[in-house]
Amino acid sequence: MPAAVVVRGLAKRYGAVGALRGIDLEVGEGELVGLLGPNGAGKSTLVKIAVGLVRPTAGEVHVAGSRAGSREARAALGYLAEMFRFPGWYTADEVLELHQRLAGSRGGEAERNRLLDLVALTQSGDRRVDGMSKGMQQRLGVAQSLVGEPRVLMLDEPTSALDPVGRRTVRLLLEELRGRGVSVLLNSHLLSEIELVCDRVAILLGGELVAVGSPHELSQARGVELETDAGTTRVAGATREDAPRLVAAAVAAGREVYGVRVLTSTLEDVYLEAVGGETS
Amino acid sequence: MTAVWTIVDYGFREAVRRKMFAVVIVLTIAFLFLFWLANHYVFRDLSTISPPADVHVDTRTFAGAFLVGLSMFATLFLGVVLAVFLTLGTVTGDAERGLLQPLVARPIGRSTLLIARFLGAGGVCIAYVLAVYFAGVLITGLTGHWYPDQIVWPGLELAGGVLVVIALSLLGSVVLSSTANGIAIFMLFGAGLVAGLLGSIGHALNSHTIKHASTIASWALPFEALYQDGLRMITEHASGLTGFLLQLGPFGGAYVHGWPIRLWALVYTLGIGAVALVSFARKNL
User: Fold this and answer.
1) A7 and A69 share a domain?
2) Would residue B51 count as lying in a domain?
3) B284 vs A51: CB contact, 8 Å cut-off?
4) pLDDT digit string (tens) for B69-115?
5) A81, B18: Cβ pair inside 8 Å?
6) Which of A147, A138, A142, A146 is nearest to A101 (CA)?
7) Is B126 within the bounds of a domain?
8) Which chain B residues have a beta carbon less than 8 Å from that of A55?
9) Distance from CA of A274 to the nearest CA of B (A)
């Protein structure tokens, strides 16, 4: 799968503080990669460098084959910043129209209506931004990032202000985008969301990449739990493949088996193990 | 060009929706009314003013030039206020509020964005300064039957002075927060004013040192030198004691600068603009 985003040896220092320390990462075409890590791990810095808002100290990032920050790279991507605001005096439709003009999109009113529809703001096109809730503004931000049908999407905490229904809307949207071949780099604190939608997960800690893989790959077997008339026993190190043998052995030993459960670590376990309890 | 006009339109709408223009128009109407009132009373009482017999002062020229000079200072001040409030948060301020990042991430280029903001603010301020300047000239002309020796050039130089301030404010917006930038620009404006007053003192005392210091300060802040040059041109044909008194000028002396200062102001503005573009291109947002 060719890479839509290529990060090589990326480092960024803010004075004496090393925000990123040699990151290597790729996002394939149509792949959805989630960035995880505690506050200050360097996730937003990585995304900002990829978008061209921040200059790297060392290393390079290429987006859709062009150097990050170049006009070609910016033309290929859509971006939702973590801390963004739209002018309060603009209506939702005007915000999208402004970005259509800046992105050179010729989608016109049809594209704007489609995008508002995608983020469940169909009836809010003529509503001013300062009259919208934070969640509505965030959904408008997601719509803005999709103006011009970008090949690569960089979303920095796109669901932080959304209620469960709003999160589900964005999650379904991301799945639809993946189906259309759009590559997504998703920065989020919401592990459950990352686990649900992402093809791969990258965990950052102190500016370094400490784990990369699919949620399934990262999840490790943690044993098998057997519930019998003698109580619940946990066989550490056992895997799904060991379950029939363990049940057969228990039955052969005269035990009555009521249940068997294969234990695997969740993404949360993997994350906590990787970051070692770091919160900032 | 589409991106430039999009950003110009964005800045213009921002000013309209934030009611900046409404406030400026109301205050300008109030200023022009008070200015008319001043003209009315000054010229009504002009016939009662009788300077000593051995003092040869053209009272109408003196009063008219002084009033137009005052209106020029007010016009420059109001133009600078408008310019500063249109531009003080263009980069750092908008970035801190999260307004800038979605725009800069688009394929328009940072230089395009900054140039467009300069053109937008410049267009608005030039129109405003010329309108207020010509209104002031017209009020004095219609009320006191006195018109400046040069009518168009002083207005253009005031507008040029405001463009210099816009360039400085945009550069400040790249490196300073909105509040710090606003303070810095108004302090520079104040420094220019002091330079002009210093020149008046030097002229009255015929001190070459003070005049020289004033001239250097005015060239370092060319909006002040352009204003002084505009003052000079409204009474360029005045001579004798009238000419001397008018050279003292309101809020700064009227000294000859001519084309060199116009060219210097252009180079200065382009230089400041270039520094702003380079700084913005290197800035982390």
Assistant:
1) yes
2) no
3) no
4) 999 999 999 999 999 999 999 899 889 888 888 888 888 889 999 99
5) no
6) A147
7) yes
8) 282, 284
9) 29
Nearest-Cα residue of chain A relative to residue B4: A102
Q: Tokens 């129209």, residue?
A: A97
Structure tokens at B187: 């302090």
Chain B residue closest in CA terms to A84: B98
What integer pLDDT is reported at residue A62 of this predicted model?
A: 95
Domain span at B106: 2-46+58-282
Q: What is the pLDDT of residues A198-241, one digit of tens each?
A: 999 999 998 999 889 888 777 777 788 899 998 898 888 888 88
Q: Rounded to an integer, what distance in angstroms lies between the CA atom of residue B101 and that of residue B111?
A: 14
Residue numbers in B near A144 (CB within 8 A): 102
pTM for this one?
0.83
Option in B10, B105, B284 nearest A74 (CB): B105
Number of folded domains that form chain A? 2
Question: Around B263, how many Cα atoms within 13 Å sit in the side-chain half-sphere?
Answer: 3
Mutate to test the interface with B, among A96, A101, A149, A185 (most CBs of B within 10 A): A101
**Domain-embedded: residue A278:** no
In three-state secondary structure terms, B49 is coil
Interface confidence (ipTM) of the complex:
0.77
For residues B212 and B219, the answer to whether their CB atoms sit within 8 Å is: no
**What residue numbers bound the domain in which A7 lies?**
3-88+147-213
Task: Classify residue A94: in a domain, yes or no.
Answer: no
CA distance linking residue A112 with residue A89, whole number of Å: 18
Closest CA to A191 of A35, A82, A29, A32: A35
Taking a C-beta distance cutoff of 8 angstroms, is the pair B140, B64 a contact?
Answer: yes
